[in-house]
Design goal:
The chain has 158 residues and is mainly β. 3% of the residues lie in helices and 43% in strands. The chain has one helix and ten strands; from the N terminus they run E-E-E-E-E-E-E-E-H-E-E. The strands form two sheets. A five-stranded antiparallel sheet has the order 1-4-9-6-7, with no helix packed on it. Strands 2-3-10-5-8 form a five-stranded antiparallel sheet, with no helix packed on it. 25% of the residues are buried.
């Protein structure tokens, strides 16, 4: 969250109220639902079968009554093509302190129609529309390609 570049979204949601490392984190609540996030154009992503997408970072959930979830979303023509939310309440063990979480997703096979969309990208962000403020910091994105596999991770690629 320290150095913003052109691949970051919602940069106005950085805060110095609380951070895991450095000076900044991103705060989400009913007033600002979407965290600072990252988008990566699909032409920069290994869009192949046998690719694992891994997003990880530090999350601060003050209480269980929040509605926060981490999202990995494929977008084209400014609309969601493939949306993958991860409810943070199910991942959080200790509310009221920073916790490290990892979310993994097999690269989905987008339909032929969706493959024709323009401005395709994959977005990573925290969402929360509750009164309880939640925070994200130190977001890391990885694309892991398995080259020597007998079968694809996702059978829709066949």
């Amino acid at each position: 969250m320290e150095t913003v570049d052109s691949s970051w979204i919602n940069c106005g949601n950085r805060t110095t109220e609380r951070s895991h490392s450095g000076k900044y984190a991103s705060k989400v609540d009913k007033n600002a639902n979407f965290s600072v996030g990252k988008y990566i154009p699909m032409d920069s992503v290994p869009y192949k079968r046998n690719v694992l997408i891994r997003a990880s970072g530090w999350f601060f959930m003050p209480a269980k009554e929040n509605n926060a979830f981490f999202a990995i979303s494929f977008v084209g023509n400014d609309q969601s093509i493939n949306y993958n939310p991860y409810q943070l309440n199910g991942f959080t063990n200790h509310f009221g302190q920073w916790e490290y979480h990892t979310f993994e997703l097999q690269m989905p096979k987008l339909s032929a129609l969706k493959e024709q969309f323009v401005n395709k990208r994959v977005e990573f962000y925290l969402y929360n529309d509750s009164e309880i403020p939640c925070y994200i910091d130190d977001l890391k994105i990885e694309f892991i390609e398995f080259k020597e596999m007998e079968r694809p991770l996702d059978l829709s690629w066949e």
